[in-house]
Amino acid sequence: MPPTVSERVSEKRDRIDLDNVLSKYPWLHQEGLDAILSPDSDGLLCGLLMSHARSWRIRGFYDGKVLVCDSRIKPSQCVFLDMEIFRSGVRSMGQHMLMYNRNRIPDAWDNFDQCLSANNLRQHDGCHDFQLKYPFGTIHLLLLLVNHFRKIEIPRTAVAPLLFTDGTYHNLFRYTENSLNWLHYLRYDEANNPLYAIFSEDQYTLDQLMQGMNNFWRARDEISNVPGERGDRVAITPRGGDRSPRNLEKHEGQYRLQQAPKERAEQFISLLSESTGWHYNPSHWSWGCWSKFLFSASSFQSDKLRINGNNFNALIDKRPLSFAMTSGQNIEYTLEEPDQLA
pLDDT tens across 310-338, in order? Predict the structure, then answer.
């Protein structure tokens, strides 16, 4: 009989080796790098942190369907935050489930040589470990790594946005055993760890936590004044399968975010900045003079494919730009067509 989820969780009692991880990905502590973000709250928090702590410059956004990037910069030379890019030498960091079967790793897996993936750190795969997948945001792992070289203070006001992102607040109570196991892996019980201030039991009473989360949601909702759009993301395409660019306008042969969605994005970033204490420096953020790249996004579900070793390897043979197992039955992926990553 295969082990239960509880038995698998109890087997995994490893702890992250910060020096080893940072030696493999030294760009994490470099100053002044260019970055491309996922356009949701996790990506925006990652960008805000790296702009504040490392003077990184946010050059654009990628949502799996469309990529916009400062036309003076090659996207392949940027660091992609809150997504994993399947291209050798392209730096990226994310928290999605990527590997299907660690006992049958495709030859092209080296394309992730500069990709820091939370689940890959522990050799978690969808075949054996999907229920043990990383339950937090990219920002939580990034915080831990950045703090190793520069102390990052977490004020009490930062707890709500850091629990809000990527459904972390829900995952703590829905997948408690797995969440505790990952917190142990991330060394959250060490007092110099910024995650201690987020997840420690004495940070909030339950009532204070609920009030803090509710206040943050209401502040987010005040920014969400457009039907079909939430205030916690930069919408460059509609949600769902439609890959048509949204909220972009052409200006002198380049693209920029329209004024109203730009103002909403900056309102939300300012909310995050006020909560965390991480300074929002507008000169570090690009909202225009963009090149636009259109890609082909699909999924196993829409292709009517089952997840198995053969179908996964067939996907890898197509050289997807990015992909992720979004459930035990589905993989979403992006191919470089019609455009190519420059």
Answer: 999 999 999 999 999 999 999 999 999 99
Please tell me the distance from the alpha carbon of residue 166 to that of residue 135, in angstroms, as a whole number: 8
- Write down the pLDDT at residue 171: 95
Q: Where are the domains of the chain?
A: 5-335
Rounded distance, CA 311 to CA 317, Å?
10
Q: Are 245 and 257 in contact, with CB atoms under 8 Å apart? A: no
Question: pLDDT digits over 109-146, tens only?
Answer: 999 999 999 999 999 999 999 999 999 999 999 999 99
Number of residues that make up the chain: 342
Grouping H, G, I as helix, E, B as strand and the rest as coil, residue 321 is coil
pLDDT reading at 243 higher than 70? no
259-276 helix and 206-223 helix, angle to the nearest 10 degrees: 160
* pLDDT computed for residue 8 by the predictor: 62
228 class by beta-carbon count within 10 Å (0-12 exposed, 13-18 middle, 19+ buried): exposed
Residue 142 to residue 276: CA distance in whole angstroms:
14
Cα–Cα dist 74/57, whole Å: 13
Model confidence, pTM: 0.94
Work out the average pLDDT over 150-166. 94
d(CA 179, CA 188): 11
The DSSP call for residue 228 is: T
Three-class HEC string of 130-178: HHHCCCCCHHHHHHHHHHCCCCCCCCHHHHHHHHHHHHHHHHHHHCHHH
3-state percent breakdown (helix, strand, coil) of the chain, nearest 5: 45, 15, 40
Confidence tier at 9 by pLDDT (50, 70, 90):
low
Q: Please calculate the CA angle 169-139-178 and round it to the nearest 5 degrees.
A: 50
User: Edge-to-edge, what's the strand order for the sheet holding 92-94?
Assistant: 115-117, 92-94, 79-81, 34-37, 57-62, 66-70, 290-294, 254-257, 248-251
Please state the separation of Cα 7 from the chain's center in Å: 28
Rounded to 5 degrees, φ, ψ at 272 are: -65, -40
Per-residue model confidence (pLDDT) at position 288: 93
